[in-house]
Amino acid sequence: MQLENRHGTPVDPVPFLVVASIAFLVSFSYGPIYCLTLGLSLPASLAVSALAFCLATVAAYHRYVRTARPELRGEIPADQRLRRLFYAVFVGIAALGLLALPLLGR
User: Fold this and answer.
1) DSSP classification of residue 70
2) Taking the chain, what is the end-to-end CA distance rounded to the nearest angstrom?
3) Phi and psi for 10 in degrees, rounded to 5?
4) What integer pLDDT is reported at residue 1 of this predicted model?
5) Please, what sign has the CA dihedral across residues 12, 14, 15, 20?
6) Does residue 41 contact residue 78 with C-beta atoms inside 8 Å?
7) Measured between alpha carbons, how far is 70 from 10 in angstroms, rounded to an integer?
8) What ranges do the domains of the chain cover?
């Protein structure tokens, strides 16, 4: 699979495929159950999960393929990597908190 960015430069497809696969797994494993708990019907829950997957896939394509700049590859300084790690942990904890909201209402 040969993907190109908006300038026609070949881009590695693996990051995009990994993020899109994780988006599929998360949206269809948590989405229907979460939406059913909130009172939506099964078809509506699946539609919401499919929409979330499509939005995440479009965002991943934009980030990892369309606007990718392979010529800028280089080592990222340690302080920036640590900051990104803390942000990722914060976002993960916030996501788990949001996923637990239906459990608090019972």
Assistant:
1) G
2) 47
3) -60, 140
4) 66
5) positive
6) no
7) 8
8) 1-74, 75-106
